[in-house]
Automatic annotation (TrEMBL):
<dbReference type="InterPro" id="IPR017439">
    <property type="entry name" value="Amidohydrolase"/>
</dbReference>
<feature type="binding site">
    <location>
        <position position="153"/>
    </location>
    <ligand>
        <name>Mn(2+)</name>
    </ligand>
</feature>
<keyword id="KW-0464">Manganese</keyword>
<dbReference type="InterPro" id="IPR002933">
    <property type="entry name" value="Peptidase_M20"/>
</dbReference>
<dbReference type="InterPro" id="IPR011650">
    <property type="entry name" value="Peptidase_M20_dimer"/>
</dbReference>
<feature type="binding site">
    <location>
        <position position="346"/>
    </location>
    <ligand>
        <name>Mn(2+)</name>
    </ligand>
</feature>
<protein>
    <submittedName>
        <fullName>N-acetyldiaminopimelate deacetylase</fullName>
    </submittedName>
</protein>
<dbReference type="GO" id="GO:0019877">
    <property type="term" value="P:diaminopimelate biosynthetic process"/>
</dbReference>
<keyword id="KW-0479">Metal-binding</keyword>
<dbReference type="GO" id="GO:0050118">
    <property type="term" value="F:N-acetyldiaminopimelate deacetylase activity"/>
</dbReference>
<feature type="binding site">
    <location>
        <position position="125"/>
    </location>
    <ligand>
        <name>Mn(2+)</name>
    </ligand>
</feature>
<feature type="domain" description="Peptidase M20 dimerisation">
    <location>
        <begin position="178"/>
        <end position="269"/>
    </location>
</feature>
<dbReference type="InterPro" id="IPR036264">
    <property type="entry name" value="Bact_exopeptidase_dim_dom"/>
</dbReference>
<feature type="binding site">
    <location>
        <position position="93"/>
    </location>
    <ligand>
        <name>Mn(2+)</name>
    </ligand>
</feature>
<dbReference type="Pfam" id="PF01546">
    <property type="entry name" value="Peptidase_M20"/>
</dbReference>
<dbReference type="Pfam" id="PF07687">
    <property type="entry name" value="M20_dimer"/>
</dbReference>
<feature type="binding site">
    <location>
        <position position="91"/>
    </location>
    <ligand>
        <name>Mn(2+)</name>
    </ligand>
</feature>
Length: 371
């Protein structure tokens, strides 16, 4: 199995969440080429679940790879760049799928002792595929639930072979945030006949800044960021509608609820004081990635002695990952794996070092079959 060719093929066909149709077809073709004696293949929406029956199983070990790309116009200049205009594998999910295929190739050729299940999960970026996939497994196919589960994410800033994780909280609770203000616009020279949505939006923006500084316990971290603000149409018309778009990040689910309660209180107050309508919508929310301490420590210890990897006990980050939903119910851990590229995740030039593919397929296979 030529992992570099596979990753390049996947890289060229990035697709949106729950629209990974070509990606699913390509993966199914790759899986069909493997020895099938102890494989069973199941599809769920655009995802794929491959169960490998062990020869003396006492447990079932899960490995998850996410499948979707991002609405970003690729600027890497590589020959195998995206053929889907305006879409790109800018978060390394092409690498994650390839590592999972590398793992499958190894266990399809040499039957493992324990059962191994590989989950190709759609829609990690948006709207979130882990939560509905897990809900489906629990209700329809509990036989396909693992006892323990792992996943990796490429990390641009680390050299290839770096395996970085930590016990407990690794990634934050996250939520999108959309605030729509509907008021009364009008002629720029008659402000008293309007309710200026730009001024209202500015007040919302400033009051949001008091949540982290004045409502949240300083020992409980939170982020409230408004990344985009739009209002009005032209210089001499008072705006009648404005929109703020942002994200919330917290290190506990309780802090997330506290931040949301304050946002709603502020918006209710602003609506009353400015005589307008303020609607709050959270879009997609992800549960924290909270590693089972024992398994994060086992990953680091294994990486330390494995040929080709080094372990790094990294700090937690305010990034989000919907793998957190699996870890809410199933013990396990997620780790960063070094990708050695100058550009960060979601950057139009993000290009992982392909050397990570074989290193990780070998590492993941060795680690999972050691459990
Ligand atoms: Zn991403
Ligand atoms: Zn990602």
């Amino acid at each position: 199995m030529d992992l570099i060719a596979i990753r390049q093929a996947l890289h060229s066909i990035p697709e949106a969440g729950f629209a990974e149709v070509k990606t699913q077809r390509y993966l199914l073709e790759c899986i069909a080429e493997l020895p099938q004696q102890w494989l069973t293949v199941t599809t769920w929406r655009t995802g794929i679940i491959v169960r490998v029956t062990g020869y003396g199983a006492i447990k079932t070990i899960g490995w998850r790879a996410d499948m979707d790309g991002l609405p970003i116009r690729e600027q890497t200049g590589v020959t195998y760049a995206s053929t889907h205009d305006g879409f790109m594998h800018a978060c390394g999910h092409d690498c994650h799928m390839t590592i999972a295929l590398g793992l499958l190739a190894r266990v399809a050729n040499e039957q493992p002792k324990n059962n191994i299940i590989v989950y190709f999960q759609p829609a990690e970026e948006n709207p979130g595929g882990a939560e509905p996939m897990l809900a489906w497994l629990k209700t329809e196919r509990p036989d396909l639930l693992p006892d323990v589960m792992f996943a990796a994410h490429v990390a641009p800033q680390y050299p290839v072979g770096t395996i970085a994780t930590k016990p407990g909280l690794l990634f934050a609770n996250t939520s999108e945030l959309y605030i729509d203000i509907t008021s009364v616009g009008g002629h720029a020279a008659f402000p008293h006949e309007t309710k200026d949505a730009s001024v209202i939006a500015a007040n919302v923006l400033l009051q949001l800044q008091t949540i982290v500084s004045r409502n949240i316990d300083p020992l409980h971290s939170a982020v409230v960021t408004i990344g985009k603000m739009t209002s009005g149409t032209v210089q001499n018309v008072i705006s009648g509608a404005a929109r703020l778009e942002g994200t919330i990040r917290t290190t506990t689910p309780q802090t997330m609820e506290a931040v949301k309660r304050r946002i709603e209180a502020i918006c209710t107050g602003i609506a009353a004081s400015f005589e307008c309508t303020v609607d709050v919508d959270y879009g997609s929310s992800y549960y924290e990635v909270n590693n089972t301490p024992h398994y994060a420590e086992a990953l680091l210890a294994f990486a330390e002695q494995f040929d080709g990897t080094t372990a790094y006990a990294c700090p937690a980050a305010m990034t989000g990952e919907d793998f957190g939903y699996f870890l809410k119910d199933i013990p396990g851990a997620l780790f960063w794996t070094g990708a050695n590229t100058a550009y960060g995740l979601h950057h139009e030039k993000m290009l992982p070092d392909e050397a990570l593919l074989h290193v990780n397929a070998d590492f993941v296979h060795a680690f999972l079959t050691s459990l």
